[in-house]
Amino acid sequence: MRSFSGRAFATVALAALLVGCGGGQGSGTAGHQAGTSSTSSAPSTSTSSSAPPVAKGKPVSAVGRSTPVRLRIPAIGVDTPVLRLGLAADGTVQVPPVQAHDRAGWYRHSPTPGQTGPSVILGHVTVGAYGDGVFRRLGELRRGDKVEVRLENGTDAEFAVTDVRTVPKSAFPTKEVYGNVNRPELRLITCGGARTGHGYRDNVIVFATLTSASP
Length: 215
Prior knowledge:
Blueprint: H1 6-13, E1 16-20, E2 28-29, E3 31-34, E4 45-46, E5 68-73, E6 78-85, E7 104-107, E8 117-122, E9 124-126, E10 146-151, E11 156-168, H2 174-178, E12 184-196, E13 199-214
């Protein structure tokens, strides 16, 4: 399947809802399934504001498309290789495999980190019998925390967290996560909240904006 970017990506993404945690017993990650976008008034919790704030100062120029190969989030001890994720046969977004050495995954039909638009990286909160997932502490991030992405072309793209939210899966803010934006942004997504018989009730979503990029 071809890659989506810009308006084409937003059109596809607006028809996607994060509905479940995949990957096997006891695991938790964000996975999305084709469906009809809906609006809900269910509450969400945020560590900053109700919407990602606009970054102040001179905008950082977007960088060229290059696949992410490593993700570092110093504040929560994340240092992980990044897999490429596509779509499964049933139309849901693939999730990283459940294994002892858990890794994050970039949804390859989104912009690459540093391109204009919302780049999407998903990860498990737990990985079955193996215990904690790579995004176990994602909800602990705070505004201003750094997120560093190493790209295949050698560029290091650095982002700053602008918002962290825990939202019910039934009220996932699809437009805010996947809709078009006019600057390079990043979305980190996992599961969270109370456990249910099939995984977790909520999603944890981190919004971040590009602050620098260097070779």
